[in-house]
Amino acid sequence: MAKKIEKQLSLPFKNAFQMSLRSLKIRFGRSVIVTMSILLGIAFLMSVFSTNAFTRALIEKGPETIRVSLQYNQEELHTRSIWLVSLSLLVCVVGIVNAMLMSVTERSREIGTMKCLGALDRFVMELFLLESLAHGLLGSIVGSVIGVLIMSIVFLIQYGGALLSIFPAGALLRYSVISIILGTALAVIGALYPAYVSARMEPAEAMRREV
Amino acid sequence: MPKEAIVRTIGLKKTYMLGKIPLPVLKGIDLEILKGEYISIMGPSGSGKTTLFNMIGGLDKPTEGKVYIDEVDVAQLDAYELAWLRCRKIGYIFQTFNLIPVMTALKNIMLPMIFAGLSTDEAMEKARQLLMTVGLGERIHHKPFELSGGQQQRVAIARALANDPAIILADEPTGNLDLRTGKEIIQLLKQMNREKKVSVITATHDLKMLDVSDRVIWVRDGLVERVEDRANLDIKVGEVEGEEGG
Ligand SMILES: Nc1ncnc2c1ncn2[C@@H]1O[C@H](COP(=O)(O)OP(=O)(O)OP(=O)(O)O)[C@@H](O)[C@H]1O
Ligand SMILES: [Mg+2]
Question: Is the CB–ligand 1 distance for residue B48 below 6 Å?
Fold first, then answer.
């Protein structure tokens, strides 16, 4: 008997793109806070990675005196760095996922309302994918630059010019790529999961949902 | 020729689960609402008005029973058809306005038209006209938080009308408004009902709504207690308002 009902069109990606861009701009304050949480997590992780890269470079290629003193407690250094990497990973995951969960869950009513107006689940997901991608990329790129910068300064002050000739650019780049991928992935997962939950709910429920 | 029903419910039941304890909220509602009617669903708080509103609007699934919108069984629709129905057939108005906070009045009204596939230009033109119709012509670029409650509700009404729906569903549209603003919103809804021939269904306990309603459906404890026609109402309005007065 379904005579007068048609199927809703899927909107072109362009619409979601424009809308998420506008949302980022208007929610600027909120966007900055979310981006900062990502930035901090990644900067911390990246500073630990950088410390490892510098230490290894010094042990392998550094001046004799430094090499000896570092090799002396290499074992201790090793266990400590495993600890630090695990810890910073944890801080990073919890911090980013928490920030994204909060910022999307508080928009459950908005998602419910959009569905009342005829939004398809896919459109809602695209919207949050784009927003979280922007937050994630920006936060983790800036975060890893800051992490590297800070540790470079610390090591330069401590070991001076000797470091410049053995600067571990390759290792730092590899670590940066890992951190950026990790930060962006965490941001996207952290946003898409709650967006998916709200979008799959009946609109009445999504609009009722309290945070 | 008898008038066509725009909404029909048959044995509509909704039971919420509170943990393991079932809480029956709607206990078998049979309704028929005709095209172009202005209906008020009245009843005490907790009687199930909002729940009924959600079922009629395809915003939640009934536990048992059927909802027909324009003779189409809502339960049979897939996600795309349901989105189409919500987009084109029904305009929703909420007590808390539910405008999208980051969008201006104009963009809020454009949104359902964008979802319906209109071009930005077409949507913008129509949204401007609608804002004029609801008396907010000069508030185009204001965000919701820059508008008063009454103005936000006007934007919501314009948005509900965006795709020329057959039904406007309004849940306590005056619940967050003062007496005078509430009256204005009721008048506006009635005007749209008359001019655009759109059926208006409101869930409310605002007695001001009685004046404009063609029929009033009294709900109590999840059941229809009685249905009254306008003609029978006129006598009672005085009494009820007398009770409230002061
Ligand atoms: N999602 C839900 N989960 C559990 N119980 C619910 C849910 N929604 C509503 N209820 C219960 O159903 C009953 C009816 O609620 P409903 O919101 O439909 O009442 P109402 O008539 O709209 O009241 P009001 O006039 O206060 O808005 C209430 O007892 C409420 O606690
Ligand atoms: Mg209610």
Answer: yes
3-state DSSP assignment of residue A21? helix
Contact A2 B114 (CB under 8 A): no
| Domain assignment present for B13 | no
Per-residue pLDDT tens digits for B79-120: 999 999 999 999 999 999 999 988 999 999 999 999 999 999
Nearest to B222 by CA among B23, B72, B2, B8: B23
Q: How far does B141 lie from chain A, in Å, by closest CA? A: 13
| Stretch (H or E) spanning B87 | none
Domain boundaries, chain A: 34-206
Range of the domain at B49: 36-58+79-231
d(CA A29, CA A31): 5
- Please state at what angle helix B105-115 crosses helix B149-160, rounded to 10 degrees: 20
User: What pLDDT digit, counting tens, does each position of B180-209 carry?
Assistant: 999 999 999 999 999 999 999 999 988 889
CATH number for the domain harbouring residue B47: 3.40.50.300
CA distance B246 to B239: 13
